[in-house]
Design a protein that fits this description.
Layout lengths: L33 E2 L20 E7 L5 H9 L1 H6 L3 E7 L2 H10 L4 E4 L1 H10 L5 E10 L1 E5 L14 E4 L5 H12 L14 E4 L5 H7 L4 E5 L2 H7 L3 E5 L10 E8 H6 L1 H20 L1 H16 L5 H9 L1 E3 L5 H14 L11 E2 L1 H9 L11 E2 L1
Parallel strand pairs: 2-3, 2-4, 7-8, 7-9, 13-14
Antiparallel strand pairs: 1-3, 4-11, 5-11, 5-12, 6-9, 6-10
Helix pairs in contact: 1-9, 1-10, 5-12, 7-11, 9-10, 9-13
Length: about 375
């Protein structure tokens, strides 16, 4: 593995427009708007009162370990506890576009979402559709290869490497890494010194096993599924970032909902902070809870040889790591997939910092891209 490099975080980009909206992150789950219930998460205290006068708050997430806060918060009932008599309703999505659509239509109020979908949703709406109100996870992305075909990073030249989708978070990261090696790849077609194959995470393990792929730059648990099929981790993306941290999941809220129901948003953020604290204090129990919710949502739990290494590579946190989001957008610009976006105002961390202060924790900042 190469020595760790220092990544200079660029200054925020302002006053520019979107050339092409990035295709959004696709992760395996149980489908657009699938209902996600849990035994613990649906209990309401007898003396509970409604939050902000609402009958329900609709929460969206992906059935993926990088959305562990939502999985565990649902399974253990943290969201329902904070919302009182206001029902916590859940919907599980298998792709960023469908969750963005749900936010825009008002069928979801708050959601766990990757950085590329958040950037896309914000820029496409001219900054009117959503706000990032918290971080949730870092890491959990790896380059896994067939060790019989690839033994070093230099061996990737001429090989077929999968990413989840054109322009998604991992695709942009891989294209940026390729460019830093001095290699050339056409971003749209994926053809060049390395062949970048856009492959849904649900089918990548089978394609890898069949030998049609030499490797993949993918999030967990897909990376660990490839390892279970005989693959080898050649690079962990976290080693390419300062302090080995980069945003992989954020909490976003429909802008109108944030304006009209700040108490409900604050309640969800209290639950998110509480959930993250519990996950980090009880990693084994949290891993089991996340897997239990995955099984409820998709009908299938992850086996231990996939779950255990995948869980270890993900860092659960409240900090949205705003500077790294700006860097990821900059990488998309350099790849030719995005014109310099105006991300000014994408963050509103006011309520999160209120919750963190009340908990005696450190506040976080928006890297000049919003309020805090």
């Amino acid at each position: 593995m190469p020595a760790k490099r220092s990544l200079r975080v660029p200054r925020p980009r302002r006053g520019v427009t979107v050339l092409a909206v990035l295709p959004l992150l696709t992760l395996a789950a149980c489908g657009y708007g699938s209902k996600a219930d849990s035994d613990e998460g649906t209990k309401v205290a007898a003396d509970a009162k409604k939050t902000d006068g609402l009958d329900s708050v609709r929460i969206g997430y992906f059935g993926n370990l990088t959305h562990a806060t939502a999985l565990v918060g649902n399974q253990k009932g943290f969201f329902q506890k904070e919302l009182g008599a206001t029902k916590a309703k859940y919907a599980v999505f298998n792709a960023g576009p469908s969750e963005i659509e749900a936010l825009n239509s008002g069928s979801v109020d708050i959601g766990w979402l990757g950085p590329s979908p958040a950037i896309n949703g914000y820029t496409k709406s001219g900054g009117k559709s959503l706000k990032i109100v918290s971080g949730s996870a870092s890491g959990g992305v790896k380059l896994v290869v067939n060790p019989k075909k690839v033994t070093s990073l230099k061996d990737l030249k001429g090989k077929k490497i999968a990413t989840p989708q054109l322009g998604n978070t991992q695709d942009v990261a891989f294209l940026n890494w390729i460019a830093e090696q001095g290699w050339k790849v056409d971003a749209q077609s994926g053809k060049g010194d390395v062949t970048v194959v856009r492959s849904d995470n649900k089918v990548t393990p089978d394609a890898f096993k069949a030998g049609s792929l030499d490797g993949a730059w993918v999030p967990e648990p897909t990376a660990s599924k490839l390892v279970a099929e005989g693959g080898k981790v050649l690079l962990d993306e976290s080693t390419l970032w300062p302090d080995e941290k980069f945003v992989i999941t954020n909490v976003v809220v429909r802008a109108e909902f944030l304006k009209e129901h700040p108490k409900a948003v604050e309640a969800v953020l209290r639950a998110s902070v509480e959930t993250n604290k519990w996950i980090n204090a009880n990693p084994d129990a949290a891993k089991a809870a996340a897997n239990k919710q995955l099984e409820k949502d998709s009908g299938k739990a992850l086996p231990a040889d996939v779950l255990d290494p995948a869980w270890k590579s993900i860092r659960i946190l409240d900090d949205p790591l705003a500077a790294t989001l700006n860097s990821e957008a900059d990488h998309a610009v350099k790849a030719g997939l995005l014109e310099k976006p105006d991300l000014d105002g994408i963050y509103d961390l006011t309520l999160l910092n209120k919750v963190l202060k009340a908990e005696g924790g450190d506040t976080v900042d928006a890297a000049g891209l919003g309020t805090q």
